[in-house]
Amino acid sequence: MGFQKITLCNLFLSVLLTSCNLDKNRENTVDAAIDSIQKQYAPDKRVALFQIDAVKQGQKTVLQGESNLPEAITTLHNVLDERKIDFIDSIQLLPASELGDETQGVVNISVANLRSNPKHTAELATQATLGTPIKVLKKEGSWYYVQTPDKYLSWVDAGGITLMNPKRFEEWRSQDKIIFTKTYGHSYNAVDEEEIISDLVAGNVLGFVKNIDGFFVVSYPDGRLALVKDKEAEDYSGWLQQMNRTADDLVATSKKLIGVPYLWGGTSTKGMDCSGFTKTIYFLNGMVIPRDASQQVNTGKPIDSISNFENLERGDLLFFGRKVTDSTAEKVVHVGMWIGDNEFIHASEMVRISSMDPSAENYDEFNRDRYLRTKRILKETDERLINLAQTPIFKD
């Protein structure tokens, strides 16, 4: 009798251990699948959302989390089906249903501050200027989780955008536009310029209504009407058509921003960080480039990585940071733009010009010592580089 009890106990223990091992293997398989799909579809969390967890409930696996990538979710389903793993899909696919049909938006103020979390004390992640179209993904309190044309994900407060349904958004996109080209200025209520409607910065895009007495009559995304001096702005379509994006244009634009203060997360003429500066230069010349230096370095054509500055052309982007070693990976932390004569322009404390020449008064030994490589993006074709003349972001 004792022997039989021991045998039954051993059998029960064996079955229990086998079941536990199967459960563990199942969990490992699901986690591995999630990890693999995340690396495939959302390797950069700044521009793609795939935050999925697997939770065990009895003999089933519950998939929880959220994503704005329907193809990635479908791929995960297919992988789990192929491996005969029972699962319950509780993933929230964004845009969230609570938004209704208002899943589009347009920046409604001169510069919207986009933050890493839904609160004003959170880190400034980036900025978006007036007229920028955005995808609205979800809402938390008075904050919206949005994605900009360069695919950057961040939070903006309700005061920074005007929500639109698809019909209203297409009406806005199809409307004639003007682009503000002065570094800083205002829109007004009347031609006497006594009453200001809003401040404006270079790159702001507004709806065009008509011309009157040296002004553009313009409309804001929220319907406000205002006057903008026609010598401080241009017809958007005409601006694009005459855009040739030469190295001379890039250098001229960059020098107009000398002295603009450094602002972490800034991408406007009110203040900018290093990559926000290069991004602004190219945007004002008809191109949308990635937000961060560590993203910009992955675009364009390789030019130099051995400090052979003779090969550089004006408009090339120089990247700086930690060099690769046997124990550490390369890390890009700074970017500037080459302007010729051994000089580059960059946002460091303020927008300034520095030199790679040790004999120059503006020699930048610190950045010369951490120089990594140079990339050329002017005239280059890359899916991460958006040519506004070819891709109608602001106007159909």
List the helices and strands and how they pair.
Layout: H1 2-41, E1 50-57, E2 60-67, H2 70-82, E3 87-93, E4 104-107, E5 111-115, E6 124-129, E7 133-140, E8 143-147, E9 153-157, E10 161-164, H3 166-174, E11 177-180, E12 184-188, E13 196-201, E14 205-212, E15 215-219, E16 225-229, E17 233-235, H4 236-241, H5 247-255, E18 267-268, E19 271-272, H6 274-283, E20 287-288, H7 293-296, E21 301-304, E22 317-322, E23 331-340, E24 343-348, E25 350-355, H8 365-369, E26 371-376, E27 386-387
Parallel strand pairs: 2-3
Antiparallel strand pairs: 1-2, 4-7, 4-10, 5-6, 7-8, 8-9, 11-14, 11-17, 12-13, 14-15, 15-16, 18-19, 20-27, 21-26, 22-23, 22-26, 23-24, 24-25
Task: Report what the structure shows.
The protein has 8 helices and 27 strands. Residues 11-22 have low confidence and may be disordered. A hairpin with a 2-residue loop joins strand 7 (133-140) and strand 8 (143-147). Helix 1 (2-41) runs antiparallel to helix 2 and helix 5 crosses helix 6 (274-283). The protein has helices at residues 2-41, 70-82, 166-174, 236-241, 247-255, 274-283, 293-296, 365-369; strands at residues 50-57, 60-67, 87-93, 104-107, 111-115, 124-129, 133-140, 143-147, 153-157, 161-164, 177-180, 184-188, 196-201, 205-212, 215-219, 225-229, 233-235, 267-268, 271-272, 287-288, 301-304, 317-322, 331-340, 343-348, 350-355, 371-376, 386-387. 38% of the residues are buried.
Characteristic terms for this protein:
six-stranded antiparallel beta sheet, 396 residues, alpha+beta, 27 strands, SH3 type barrels, 36% strand, Histidine-containing Protein, Chain: A, five-stranded antiparallel beta sheet, globular
